[in-house]
């Protein structure tokens, strides 16, 4: 088969989704599957839906369009504020979008009127992670302003934590979001249908809390795709971590000195290579580069050590493995490596259903 390639096990994705959906149902929390790490690959999205996700979300209009072309008919949420130049496309392809800026809301309102449709808005609240969000004291006024804009309807409130600054979504943060929901409903006189507590980093809290308050949705990507939680990158009990494997072909296999020689300066990506042991090693080069994956996020097979990666070459110490040119080596991936591999035009996909 062609390499490099991303081998995808859809049953593992569906199984992870089903497990998380079933665990969150008792708390009254539904799952929106997030497909951005795989660039909106329809087969992966369908596996999430098969596993019980109530809808899908992605941060890019282009990925949502790919999902629609792939036949996904269930609700789609644009989980990043639409760019002003994309509001018409956002209206056509997504049912809901996450927003913070009045000027964007104005543009969405105008686009909805042009399209003859109504677009649902979730206002994002800043709770400390310092990515997107409206200040808590401004949320009620922002909610009222959505209701005044023709073509828009206020679906709910949401927040995002642990992405930019690593702020943990805990009981105090979620209680604050719930209080804001109550305040908005009291003033606007309507019940919000979406209270989006956050992403996979919320799972520790959601599965342990005795009171999730008004939170009724989580946007889950990494936990479904990789079976890990983002706060400490620990495997989640009962989830599979083998849904994705990055496969590369060996293009050189030689015994070489373990240490480079000559005057040492920065390598191609600005780092200085670490000191290695003395003697010789059995070294292989795999046709994978930083254009294809994040080297820090690759997990090599047991007994093989990653020595470095340039744009197009992955250098490994194969140890006692008998490796020849033309052989394939398979690597596990973390979220960063998966995202880059799924985005690289040089990496093909092979899907196991």
Automatic annotation (TrEMBL):
Alanine racemase N-terminal domain ranges (all copies): 8-224
UniProt keyword list: Isomerase, Pyridoxal phosphate
Entry cofactors: pyridoxal 5'-phosphate
Coiled coil location: none
Keyword Iron recorded: no
UniProt protein name: Alanine/ornithine racemase family PLP-dependent enzyme
Biological source species: Herbiconiux aconitum
